[in-house]
Amino acid sequence: MSAAMRIHVRTSGGEVEIEVGDPSSIDAAIDAATRIVQELASGAQVQVSGAQVQVAEGGSAVPDELPDVKVEKGDSLADVIKKMFDSSWGRRPRRLSEVMDALSSFGLIYPKSSVAVALLRLAKDGEIRRFKEGGEYVYIEREPAAGGDA
After folding, report:
1. How confident is the model over 79-89, as pLDDT tens digits?
2. Which helix (H) or strand (E) holds 46?
């Protein structure tokens, strides 16, 4: 039994990950990933079901934007999260799952508990804000200091 292969493509227009069970179908998967990324860039809604790709025009269902940050080799988990919330991405409340998705878009895979602890510590240190929304904690950039100087 052969292992599954994953193709992950991230552009400013969106992100696509395709898992291929049969290595002989890798060419078809690459073609599908390319087509999906092109459709995302054009603003179309893309729905993937099984091996078929359906593209529906209109709507704003393009995946939510990803943080535009540069991850350095020596950055800790807290450093990366802080950078994400300092970017425009952090200007609206984000759930733990959104933070996890953003981290994975950079190839950073952490246990949910590690990310939750890092978020809690950043909130307690005043680096980001944390509050409940709909029974779930959300996180957002810290408010700028009064007077305009930080």
Report:
1. 999 999 999 99
2. strand 45-49
